[in-house]
Amino acid sequence: AVQCRLLCYFTVKSYINKVRLDKAGYLLTHSYLSVTDIAFDCGFSDSNYFSTAFKNKYGTSPKKYRDTYSS
């Protein structure tokens, strides 16, 4: 039921990108992997596209996000 609800609000592609970017946000704040490694680990084949998509979702670059929210 939850999956159906999520897919009703998102296209499949946008849902997959949301999940990938959520994972990237977590990895940026909980690992020492490079931004490029995180992009590839989250299923993005182009780190420039990843950075653009990340900035569109979070309003900041992956590096600034990491600097701001890392513990």
Describe the structure.
Helices cover 76% and strands 0% of the residues. It is an all-alpha fold and 71 residues long.
Structural class: mainly alpha
Instruction: Give helix % range.
Output: over 70%
DSSP, total strands: 0
The Cα radius of gyration reads 13 Å
Shape: globular
Element pattern in H and E: HHHHH
Main sheet? none
- Unreliable stretches (pLDDT < 50, length at least 5) are none
How far apart are the termini?
35 Å
Strand content range: under 5%
Tally of individual helices: 5
What integer is the average pLDDT? 90
What topology emerges from the helices and strands here?
Blueprint: H1 2-9, H2 12-30, H3 35-41, H4 47-58, H5 62-69
